[in-house]
Design a protein that fits this description.
This protein has helices at residues 6-35, 43-69. The protein is mostly helical and 73 residues long. The protein has a domain at 21-69.
């Protein structure tokens, strides 16, 4: 006896993964928006920009990977 079917399990995991990835991208974009206008001469500001770009890349990988897994892309 199984708790849920395989297609339902894949759907739930896909929604969670794409949802977290999408929210992560939005969160990083909001944080990047707060840095707008600050000088890039400060190494700490440049490190924050780099970290936010990496966060966006991770979120995009999560969303695109989920879409490819489900045959959308």
């Amino acid at each position: 006896m199984t708790l849920m079917s395989e297609p339902m399990f894949k759907a739930i995991i896909s929604v969670l993964t794409a949802g977290v990835g999408g929210l992560w991208v939005i969160h990083e974009l909001v944080l990047m928006n707060r840095l707008r206008g600050k000088g890039l001469q400060d190494p700490l500001i440049r490190d924050q920009w780099f970290g936010y770009f990496i966060g966006i890349a991770i979120g995009v990988i999560g969303v695109v990977g989920t879409l490819r897994f489900n045959g959308v892309l």
